[in-house]
Amino acid sequence: MNGKTTDPTYNGGGLKRFAVDLLYPNRCPFCDGFIPYDRACCTECFDSVLWADELICPVCGKSTRSGCICPVPYRRCFTAFYYEGKGKYGIKSLKYRSHPDCAQLYGRVLRDRMDIAGATEGIDAAVPVPMAPKSLRERGYDQAELIARGIIKGSDIELLTHALRRLDPEREQHTLSAAERRQEAERQYSAGSDIDKVRGKVILLVDDVLTTGATLTACTNVLLKNGARQVICAAAATV
């Protein structure tokens, strides 16, 4: 793990974080309970979250309970936890409850898993899956970018926030079938202004949730088409 301690729930201290906590008390992203200002989540929740295990396909990153989606264009996908129970609440805290700090925790867990697998070495740059412009304006931050920053913190891996671009969706994702999601993803994602920087490099593609795999597949195809040597994916949660 990165940081001053091997405790994954430690989010770093400092006077600024302490001062902010006086006005906006820190809360656990998994249960919304109050926690110390220097913690990312409470110990009870960390111990009870359904962390990704041997039932996750080591290649596509999907739970074998919901169905492996291999073959995929990316080399492999790392995930931190299942998108259910407290894990689902943790993602919603990141996306909809203005709790961006928990992205650091998710990034640390993903980095730890990648380090154990020996996958971190050789990665040249990280590319977060971009948000739709309308959603980014409303939320004020890109959760995939925050997770990516958590993964690469303390490393020499470059962050490319404009390698990909995304159009506003024509239809809400939750209303689409798997086939429709694939078609919509292919329409939405394209090369961004920094796409030339991926040429010849091993790219870490980062997202918040892996559902059907349509988004990671579409983005990987764009990166490979524009010269990326290889793509490895990481998602905080998997369905």
Brief account:
With 239 residues, the chain is of the alpha/beta class. The chain is 34% helix and 15% strand. The protein is globular, with a radius of gyration of 17 Å.
Summarize the structure in words.
This protein has a single domain, classed as Rossmann fold (3-Layer(aba) Sandwich), CATH 3.40.50. The protein is globular. The longest helix has 15 residues, at 102-116. 34% of the residues lie in helices and 15% in strands. The strands form two sheets. The protein has a five-stranded parallel β-sheet, with helices on both faces. The two termini are 25 Å apart. Helix 8 (214-225) links the parallel strand 6 (202-210) and strand 7 (230-238). The protein has 239 residues and is an alpha/beta fold. The relative contact order is 0.16.
CATH top-level class = Alpha Beta
| Structural class assignment | alpha/beta
Physical arrangement of strands within the biggest beta sheet: 1-7-6-2-3
In DSSP terms (H or I, runs of 4 or more residues), the helix count works out at: 8
| Approximate strand percentage | 15-25%
Order of helices and strands: HHEHHEHHEEHEEHE
The counted number of beta strands is 7
- Report the uncertain regions: 1-5
Shape: globular
**What's the domain count?**
1
Any idea what the radius of gyration is? 17 Å
The biggest sheet amounts to: 5 strands, parallel
Q: What is the mean predicted local confidence, pLDDT?
A: 90
- Binned, the helix content reads 25-40%
Beginning-to-end CA distance, first to last residue: 25 Å
How does CATH name the architecture? Answer: 3-Layer(aba) Sandwich
Examine the coordinates and then state which fold CATH places here, giving the name of the CATH topology.
Answer: Rossmann fold
